[in-house]
Design a protein that fits this description.
This protein has two domains: 4-240, Rossmann fold (3-Layer(aba) Sandwich); 259-494, P-loop containing nucleotide triphosphate hydrolases (Rossmann fold, 3-Layer(aba) Sandwich), CATH 3.40.50.300. It has 17 helices and 20 strands. It is of the alpha/beta class and 495 residues long. The strands form four sheets. The protein has a six-stranded mixed beta sheet with strand order 6-7-8-3-9-10, sandwiched between helices. It has a six-stranded mixed beta sheet with strand order 16-17-18-13-19-20, sandwiched between helices. Strands 2-1-4-5 form a four-stranded antiparallel beta sheet, covered by helices on one side.
């Protein structure tokens, strides 16, 4: 690793009533990966926005290549070599890969016509630098999520970025694609002068890709550690400010005798002959690589897609499920993996989101809503799930990702389901919120619910689930007891 190419010195930033950053200093060397860790609300996003010119600090200094500078806007930061890949990818789906890479900077001749040959050649050279194989002529709409992520990296490198900020780059990727991306980051840093600031809630990735880790908490710098000199438990303690003795909350299943939910040889246009059961108080995991069929199974069980064969049995009785509404009435709840798009209405407040599926129960007489009952119920869920919100009228958009996820959970649990399907329940949430969601899952088991958990993260599946069904190509390849199970064994079935 070379000389320092970027420094923040004594950066502070306040918003009305909140000090988001308090005297933060950070340095980045040429050719290193610095991981930035902290719970949601720790100040990571504010710091990144200052690094990339979206915000200006109230105090402190920014140095690029030993020269003091001021970023007036993102274009100014980009011109000095800083580029960011946001968690929510930004692309034009009906334009080509090459057009997306050079959008706003298309090579044109004197008449203003796009020189397509030059555009394609420049795009190919960027992919060659990355070691990636993507057709520059392909439409973005035809690419996988992983490929779109690579196009975002190519866009940043095409601007001659010296420092690449990657915000949760693997949050939407499966295990295989996430591993490929981490390998790509390592190769780019090793073979070029690129430096990377890497943000992720998947702590295992930090040890795969980073050289140093910087921990923030409540807007303050807590520690900077060489990755080789720390471990996950220490980083978790630094982030949350306390020791989490049992990060994964699952204990021995209380009740496993009674089967509450059976899936018998169901098929759809994609799924083939899916069978499994879930017992009261049990967590059954579903694992597969991207496109294997886990989400398709969840959607089939919840009535989003039609069955072409097979049946679903609840408490020993076959059920005809034709829609999400009919699934919910029969005791099946489903928490989708995209909370902002499919779980919550971001323009509504906390209370409005909590009662989305139970509203009729609060209006038994002439359609008049019992507001007192609504308020009592919602506050009970806030307390039960440790949801951090100033009030029930707080807009859901102002809550952290973990608290948004717990509001979505409360919405479904308020319906008293017999089985709940959780698709990526800890995706994009910090370690403190993860621990609380695991505790909520244990509470569901204690109350006799059957839980189906879909996750790309094998450590949490092994720790939280009693059994794991491995899915590949629209089929279940194996159902394995999690006790003593290794990640390698699961992957051998998944591939």
């Amino acid at each position: 690793m070379g000389e320092h190419i970027f420094r923040l010195k004594g950066i502070s930033k306040s918003f009305p009533g909140v000090k988001a950053l308090d005297n933060i200093s950070l340095d980045i060397k040429k050719g290193e990966v610095v991981a930035l860790l902290g719970e949601n609300g720790a100040g990571k996003s504010t710091l990144i926005k200052i690094m990339t010119g979206i915000y200006q600090p109230d105090s402190g200094e920014i140095e690029v290549f030993e020269e003091k500078t001021v970023f007036h806007d993102p274009a100014d930061a980009l011109s000095k070599g800083l580029s960011v890949i946001h968690q929510e990818l930004s692309y034009l789906s009906e334009l080509s890969v090459a057009e997306n890479i050079f959008v706003g900077r298309l090579p044109c001749n004197k008449l203003g016509w796009v020189n397509w040959q030059v555009l394609i050649e420049k795009s190919r050279k960027v992919f060659e630098r990355m070691g990636a194989d993507i057709n520059p002529n392909a439409l973005m709409s035809t690419l996988s999520v992983a490929e779109r992520q690579l196009v975002e990296i190519a866009k940043a490198l095409s601007c001659d970025a010296k420092i690449l900020v990657m915000d949760e780059p693997t949050s939407a990727l499966g295990v295989e694609d996430a591993e490929k991306l981490l390998k790509l980051v390592h190769e780019m840093v090793s073979n070029t002068d690129l430096s990377v600031v890497y943000i992720s809630h998947r702590l295992s990735e930090i040890f795969d890709v980073a050289d140093r880790v910087v921990v923030l908490r409540d807007g303050q710098h807590i520690a900077t550690k060489n990755v080789s000199e720390t471990n996950e438990q220490e980083l978790i303690s630094l982030m949350v400010g306390r020791k989490i003795e049992s990060f994964y909350a699952k204990t021995a299943t209380q009740v496993v005798a009674d089967v509450v939910f059976e899936v018998k040889s169901i098929s759809t246009d994609f799924l083939q002959d899916i069978s499994f059961d879930v017992r009261k108080g049990e967590i059954l995991g579903l694992f597969g690589l991207l496109g294997a069929g886990c989400t398709e199974i969840a959607e089939a069980l919840f009535g989003v897609s039609d069955l072409t064969a097979g049946e679903i049995v609840i408490d020993g009785k076959a059920q005809r499920i034709t829609s999400p509404g009919s699934a919910l009435e029969r005791g099946i709840a489903y928490l989708p993996d995209e909370r902002k798009a499919n779980s919550l209405i971001m323009s509504m407040d906390v209370q409005g989101n909590m009662i989305l599926v139970t509203l009729k129960e609060y209006a038994p007489v002439l359609g008049w809503i019992n507001t007192k009952k609504v308020t009592e119920s919602c506050w009970n869920w806030v307390k039960k799930l440790s949801i951090r919100t100033a009030s029930l009228s707080t807009g859901i958009e102002f809550l952290s990702g973990g608290n948004q996820q717990k509001v979505a959970l409360a919405k479904w649990l308020a319906k008293n389901p017999k089985v709940i399907i959780l698709n990526g329940p800890t995706r994009g949430v910090d370690v403190g919120a993860k621990s609380e969601i695991y505790s909520a899952m244990q509470q569901m088991c204690d109350e006799g619910l059957g839980v189906i958990m879909i996750s790309p993260e094998l450590p949490e599946l092994i720790a939280m689930c009693d059994r794991i069904a491995v899915v590949a190509g629209g089929r279940i390849k194996a159902i394995l007891n999690s006790e003593g199970l290794s990640q390698e064994t699961i992957m051998s079935y998944a591939v």
